[in-house]
Specification:
alpha/beta; Rossmann fold; 4-stranded antiparallel β-sheet; 7 helices; 10 strands; disordered N terminus
């Protein structure tokens, strides 16, 4: 828990940035994130083949480093540390929200992209055995998405795994975003946390294979609610 405490302190402190790449002038308030109907809905327990595949890949191993991009929640901390692994976390969507706001064009700005990656994924190459990205990637426009996928490839160890979740390939104006709490090896508690403007990126199997083309393998699981779970291996 000392590691978790230090990570939380680090997140709260944030990081410095050059003036040309600082946070938006609105101070981090992002109208694009909508908290309304659905926020108070009871969390849904569901089976997750992707989660099962992720942790089965590490069976009979301990002491691995797992990064959770959904922020630190007690259920995930408890589950991952109970398996004998080291837990790390980033409140990835909060940093994304604070960095870009509703300015879609800013997601193509190389300086802003590098600033975001320094705040959210500033880790050594080959540091993690696994990354739980959840739905954090599907709100990004192509330039930022490609840079983030490349950074994730870099920080994963060879033969490391990443789990990501995307909505179906159909285009929508708004999509819900969730929090994911691990109940056991095969079960997630999924709570709808609000809505956000959808990315212009189309997330079908072909586009996801292209996104993760540097990885050794990409595997898909189609779930209820048209969610697509993706397991990639470096």
């Amino acid at each position: 828990m000392g590691l978790l405490s230090e990570r939380l302190k680090s997140l709260l402190r944030g990081s410095g940035s050059p003036a040309e790449a600082g946070p938006p002038a609105n101070g981090g308030h992002v109208p694009g994130w909508v908290f309304g109907p659905g926020q108070g809905e009871a969390p849904d327990r569901r089976q997750s083949r992707g989660l099962d595949q992720f942790f089965t890949s590490f069976r009979d191993q301990t002491g691995l480093s797992i990064l959770d991009l959904g922020g630190a929640c007690q259920e995930n901390v408890n589950f991952i540390t109970s398996l004998g692994h080291k837990f790390h976390s980033e409140d990835f969507l909060r940093i994304f929200q604070e960095t870009f706001g509703e300015d879609v064009a800013d997601q193509s700005n190389p300086g802003r992209i590098q600033y975001f990656l320094r705040r959210s994924l500033e880790y050594a190459d080959d540091q993690f055995d696994g990354v739980l990205a959840w739905d954090a990637l599907e709100y990004m426009e192509p330039a930022l998405l490609a840079a983030t996928a490349d950074r994730l490839w870099r920080i994963l160890k060879p033969k490391g795994y990443l789990l990501a979740i995307f909505h179906s390939a159909e285009r929508k104006r708004m999509v819900p975003y969730y929090n994911f709490r691990i109940q056991d090896m095969r079960t997630l508690q999924v709570g709808r946390h609000g809505e956000r403007a959808a990315s212009q990126q189309l997330f079908n199997n072909r586009s996801l294979e292209k996104l993760f083309q540097k990885f050794e393998s990409v595997k898909f699981f189609l779930t209820r609610d048209s969610l697509r779970e993706v397991i990639v291996r470096k």
